[in-house]
């Protein structure tokens, strides 16, 4: 039997994203785009101190793209909340795909774009805070 193009988990996160929106006073912003497919992804992070370490307290996204791009943007936000930067940077596109379930190979670029947006948001924070 052939794998469905949109799994239940992808559809749920696409239709009812938990992390959709902008963090107005974001500590870091990652803007990425895929010129081939036209996806635009903005990832916002809010940083806090916890037990003497900086963690990603909150993460939100604004994405213009297909259902996979929106669902994956939502998933990466959940995966990095509460993590240090070092832990969050280990959340690669493979981790995202493993958590969200199988995606068609043609949609793998969505997970790679989310990984790039996270890296850009962390880099933006580190640049702003001169770390």
UniProtKB/TrEMBL annotation:
GO BP terms, alphabetized: iron-sulfur cluster assembly
InterPro entries to which the protein is assigned, alphabetical: NIF_FeS_clus_asmbl_NifU_N
Residue stretches making up the NIF system FeS cluster assembly NifU N-terminal domain: 6-130
GO molecular function: iron ion binding; iron-sulfur cluster binding
CDD domains tied to this protein: IscU_like
Record's protein name: Iron-sulfur cluster assembly scaffold protein
